[in-house]
Design brief:
two-stranded antiparallel ribbon; 7-stranded antiparallel beta sheet; 9 strands
């Protein structure tokens, strides 16, 4: 940890209680990342955002840990020999159509499908998805994703499937699964919150993320086409809202 080993006084107890409560609340707003196992094939997804949110990210511990780069004074950049260089990545909100099952605290088997997830890919895959977006439209089709290779030497393939047209009722059911803190946000804001939330969770000793750190992360978040103007924000629009702007 960054702080000293010992903290004197009762205030330190209260600070720790507040820190834990903040981390607990932040985790409530976190979505699972979309992952594929080595060799996993034909996993169906539906894109809920057309354009990516782009940022710099550190990935280490064999890909198990992913932390947004905060830019200046980034502790991971300062320790590059251990953590490696940050890479430029792109993120989308997707609907993972795989079936899943788990046991709840009472031991009851719970099963379902169609979970909203946070997909992050590098520049190679982003270039492929940019072409698919321009030619077909990512949100207009169901896509099957296949992972080839092993460990860090892998490639993801995106194959276009059947055309999809989700009804309002279907969309309401999909977004009803989101945590309370995300339900009032548009899909692009949800992606942005995953990035900022990851940075906050990575620095749990701070009471809140500094404005400088937030700005340094989001300054690098831009559209691939870097458009100067965007249409009026709406749910599931094919064009994303400018960062940092609210209604």
């Amino acid at each position: 940890m960054k702080n000293n080993m010992f903290k004197r006084g009762f205030k330190a107890i209260k600070d720790e209680e507040e820190r834990r409560e903040k981390v607990k609340e932040l985790k409530k707003g976190r979505l699972f990342r979309f992952y594929l196992k080595d060799g996993e094939e034909d996993v169906p997804v539906i894109f809920l955002t057309e354009e990516p949110i782009n940022f710099w990210e550190h990935t280490f511990d064999k890909g198990k840990v992913n932390v947004p780069c905060s830019g200046e004074d980034c502790e991971y950049c300062a320790n590059e020999e251990k953590y490696g260089k940050a890479r430029f990545v792109s993120a989308w909100l997707v609907l993972d159509r795989r079936e899943y099952s788990y046991k709840d605290q009472a031991g009851k088997e719970i099963s379902g499908k169609d979970r909203i997830k946070f997909m992050v890919r590098g520049m190679t895959n982003a270039a492929v998805l940019e072409k698919h977006s321009a030619k077909y439209g990512l949100m207009k089709y169901e896509w099957t994703v296949t992972r080839t290779g092993k460990d860090t030497s892998t490639t993801w393939l995106f194959d276009r499937g059947e055309q999809v047209s989700l009804t309002k009722k279907q969309m309401e059911a999909i977004f009803a699964q989101l945590p309370e803190g995300l339900k009032d946000l548009d899909p692009y804001e949800i992606v942005e919150k995953q990035i900022i939330g990851a940075l906050e969770l990575d620095n749990p000793v701070t009471e809140e993320i500094s404005k400088e750190a937030e700005k340094s992360v989001m300054d690098g978040v831009q559209d691939i086409d870097d458009e100067e103007k965007d249409p009026e924000p709406q749910k599931l629009t094919n064009k994303r809202r400018p960062l940092g702007k609210k209604n």
